[in-house]
Amino acid sequence: MSHADTPPSFISKICDRASLDHALARLPKPWVFTNGVFDVLHRGHVVYLAQARELGGSLIVALNTDASVKRLGKGDDRPLNHDADRAMVMASLASVSLVTWFDEDTPLELIQQIRPDLIVKGGDYNMELLPETTAVRSWGGQALALPFVPGYSTTQLLKRIRASTGKP
Ligand SMILES: Nc1ncnc2c1ncn2[C@@H]1O[C@H](COP(=O)(O)OP(=O)(O)OP(=O)(O)O)[C@@H](O)[C@H]1O
Ligand SMILES: O=P(O)(O)O[C@@H]1O[C@H]([C@H](O)CO)[C@@H](O)[C@H](O)[C@@H]1O
Asked: Which residues form the Cytidyltransferase-like domain (predicted)?
């Protein structure tokens, strides 16, 4: 098999719900959990993910499936990148220990299955308003919003791309 045919090693970070418990067993604790769409990765994402990784022994990232994203109302054309592709890009980051996904509207059920020590979001969220925060605190975990990196969002990036190409 040539190098071109060899799957990248980071693929092993990606696991579905059925294999999650087995994958979690080998992850060093404390477990940090975050979730999101991560449609087009940008500087704000990679900075907060690196910060999140430094807060524990492992960073678990849960992506919304395409069907879940469609219900979020980010736009009829979203996600631009399918969940399998978003998972590959996310798994390639050194700061990410495990990538999985969820099909529900929120990660609450997945968080209750994983029982992470810390859940994090970027600074565009008020953690006190999230049901996930109540859940993680129920087993002694914590919830934290990490600093927002100003000027970076996928929606704004897409607006700039469309403006530069003159296409809607
Ligand atoms: N500029 C940023 N700085 C820090 N964290 C961010 C930033 N933008 C998004 N995040 C965080 O990244 C995670 C994924 O968010 P999301 O995929 O919605 O990114 P986004 O750029 O806001 O996308 P969209 O514009 O499509 O909503 C969330 O936890 C969010 O809080
Ligand atoms: O990429 P986003 O829009 O930050 O991801 C959403 O985050 C929501 C947040 O965790 C509050 O629950 C979540 O509910 C939603 O499913 C998306 O993951």
From this structure: 33-129
| The pair of three-digit structure tokens given for residue 11, joined into one six-digit string | 């693929």
Is 121 touching ligand 1 by the criterion CB < 6 Å? yes
Q: Is any ligand 1 atom within 6 A of the Cβ of residue 45?
A: yes
Distance 36 CA to ligand 2 centre (A): 5
Ligand 1 pocket: which of 153, 155, 159, 162 to mutate (most atoms within 8 A of CB): 153
Domain annotation covers residue 145:
yes
Q: Is 142 helix (H, G, I), strand (E, B) or coil?
A: strand
| Rounded Cα–Cα distance for residues 91 and 88 (Å) | 5
Tens of each residue's pLDDT in the chain, 168 residues: 677 778 789 999 999 999 999 999 999 999 999 999 999 999 999 999 999 999 999 999 999 999 999 999 999 999 999 999 999 999 999 999 999 999 999 999 999 999 999 999 999 999 999 999 999 999 999 999 999 999 999 999 999 999 998 876
What's 33's domain CATH number? 3.40.50.620
**CA 26 to centroid of ligand 2, rounded, Å:** 26
Whether 147 is covered by a domain: the verdict is yes
**Does a structural domain hold residue 38?**
yes
The count of domains in the chain is 1
pTM over 0.90: yes
For residue 69, CA distances in Å to 1, 104, 105, 125 come to 37, 9, 8, 18
**Ligand 2 pocket list (CB less than 6 A):** 35-37, 64, 105-107, 121, 130, 132
Structural domain for 58, as ranges:
27-165
